Amino acid sequence: MPEADRTTSLDDGNVAGDPRGHGDDVRAVPLRHPGRWVASALVLVVAVAVASSLVTNERFQWDVVGEYFFSSAILSGLWTTLWLTAVSMTIAVVLGIIIALMRLSPNPVLKGGANLYTWFFRGTPLLVQLIFLFNISALYPVLTVGVPFGPKFFDIPANDILTPALVAIIGLSLNEAAYMAEIVRGGINSVEHGQTEAAQALGLRRSVIMRRIVLPQAIRVILPPTGNETISMLKYTSLISVIAMPELLYSAQVIYSRTYETIPLLMVASLWYLIVTSVLTLGQTYLERRTSRHRRTTETFAGGLLRRLRPHDTRVTAGRERP
Amino acid sequence: MTTSEASASPPAVRIRGVRKSFGRLEVLRGINLEVWPGEVVCLIGPSGSGKSTLLRCVNHLEKVDGGRIEVDGELVGYRRKGDKVYELKDREICRKREQIGMVFQQFNLFPHMTVLGNVVEAPVRLGKMRQREAEAAGRELLARVGLAEKESAYPRQLSGGQQQRVAIARALAMRPRLMLFDEPTSALDPELVGDVLAVMGDLARDGMTMIVVTHEMGFAREVADRVVFMDQGRLVEQGHPSEILERPSHERTQAFLRRVL
Ligand SMILES: Nc1ncnc2c1ncn2[C@@H]1O[C@H](COP(=O)(O)OP(=O)(O)OP(=O)(O)O)[C@@H](O)[C@H]1O
Ligand SMILES: [Mg+2]
């Protein structure tokens, strides 16, 4: 092992078998970083100030926060936020994949349609899209199912079916699909073309290649930003409050418009958003680990967490790797 | 098997006047070539001469611009009806490709599947075999390429030579009648080349029809029935390995061989 030989020849006071050596080793004084100390002190001062104000500023009204935190109105708002996120995100992912496949298609009409879609939904604010959709009955009072310029099957008054919940789902998922399409497209493009060619050479059909070979590999690239999008989606659902759908923020608003306890109720909503986004972040880490398993050694999520919680273990393993 | 005794049966591959351009670049300028059943043809030539392109035309990974290619007497990628030729549907092209195995320079194993998963994917997806059956057949193939104990490993846990042998087993799983190899050992460390060439040699001795693009002149000399030299999109000369490699008649072949040998 030339590596070891070189080490021992440099340090002749060393005893074979003990690479760290003893006695003659250099006792280096670590480099000082005064800048870091100043920065740390500043951060600490700010943290203490914020913490003390949280405790001492009575206008936070922590007792009110506690009173409403588990109230049924808030919990039902939270539930609405959660399912709205889940449903809209699911639709957005499916739609996003379809639009991504359209963009990658050689058919210019499909490609053009997908480009137009992405251009529109990414180019206008979500809030505007939502309000627009909510007022769609002003534009199309009657929705007609039929063939353009051809036979009509039936008419429905727009207001009858476009409930706030439906507007919310449609608005959030159509908008999100445009972003998901870009993410999926990037993921698909990240898979080497050789993969498709190898699968084609085996005689697999295009749809099978996409489903079995390309998408499963694209997932590794698609998943992390999709996790971020889910977290963003959760927060964007608060925009739905403008169309009076009782999600988490609107539920808090309904209460404080009655009791004028604005700040504590905003705290209630914020804390719940924080809790849910934290849980989602954990889930995201877990999923990313699972999908990238074929490229790493088999470390389970729990195992990894334990390993990181016990720094002692890592040192032992690291030592063993370099005898 | 010599060319003369095989010529009794129809050719496994018949390439007639094939032309192909990428934009302005003419890559194949009228190629004629027959490959007989059970024959091993090594395709040699300088970089950019169109060897890969020709190979990829044989299984329709590239469309030809002119001429035609028949495998087992059937057009590849097209159908003749009357005096017109129609392009086939994806599904029909796939059915033709099933009979043609291909091995790539970069292996192109599916990284998210185990070794056995790679081998059984095509036969199972294409409904040739049930999962169980395909796995048994796959294990046999892996044993044949000397990787029986690696079936549950993932590609990136294998050396390049092992990956390429898995790729060969994967191609064989569809029981092809023709195997195309595009520089199968060019991406390998020198000490790993031998194992892959040995597997290919076994395959040749078992009577597989093979077209092999290679820079391994030793393999060409020992295994090939015929060596074909290509340059600038044309087939310059062909013949028995000893003839082409020892006594090339064409000046361009001589120049090429001086460089690689
Ligand atoms: N998809 C493509 N688009 C454009 N040009 C291409 C494409 N594929 C190949 N070419 C060009 O066609 C020519 C022939 O390529 P080909 O890969 O067939 O050569 P080759 O004989 O296999 O060379 P090598 O020994 O380097 O693999 C090259 O000049 C290459 O740049
Ligand atoms: Mg090539």
From TrEMBL, chain A:
Task: Give the transmembrane ranges.
Answer: 37-56, 68-101, 126-149, 161-181, 236-256, 262-287
Ranges for domain ABC transmembrane type-1: 78-284
UniProtKB keywords:
Amino-acid transport, Cell membrane, Membrane, Transmembrane, Transmembrane helix, Transport
SUPFAM superfamilies, per database record: MetI-like
Coiled coil stretches, renumbered: none
| Transport in keyword set | yes
Q: Which GO terms describe its cellular component?
A: ATP-binding cassette (ABC) transporter complex
Q: Which Gene3D superfamilies match?
A: MetI-like
Family matches, as Pfam families: BPD_transp_1
Protein's GO biological process: amino acid transport
Q: Name one GO molecular function term.
A: transmembrane transporter activity
Location(s), subcellular: Cell membrane
Q: Where is this region: Disordered?
A: 1-23
What NCBIfam families is this protein classified in? HEQRo_perm_3TM
The family assignment reads:
Belongs to the binding-protein-dependent transport system permease family.
State the protein's name: Amino acid ABC transporter permease
Origin species: Nonomuraea cavernae
UniProtKB/TrEMBL annotation, chain B:
Q: What class of enzyme is it?
A: translocase
Cite the PROSITE patterns for this sequence. ABC_TRANSPORTER_1 (PS00211), ABC_TRANSPORTER_2 (PS50893)
CDD domains assigned to the protein according to its UniProt record, in alphabetical order: ABC_HisP_GlnQ (cd03262)
Q: What GO annotations for molecular function exist for this entry?
A: ATP binding; ATP hydrolysis activity; ATPase-coupled polar amino acid-transporter activity
Query: Does this entry carry the keyword ATP-binding?
Result: yes
Catalytic reactions of this protein: a polar amino acid(out) + ATP + H2O = a polar amino acid(in) + ADP + phosphate + H(+)
Enzyme nomenclature, EC number: 7.4.2.1
Q: Which family does it belong to?
A: Belongs to the ABC transporter superfamily.
Under which name does UniProt file this protein?
ABC-type polar-amino-acid transporter
- Which species? Nonomuraea cavernae
Lineage, top ranks: Bacteria, Bacillati, Actinomycetota, Actinomycetes, Streptosporangiales
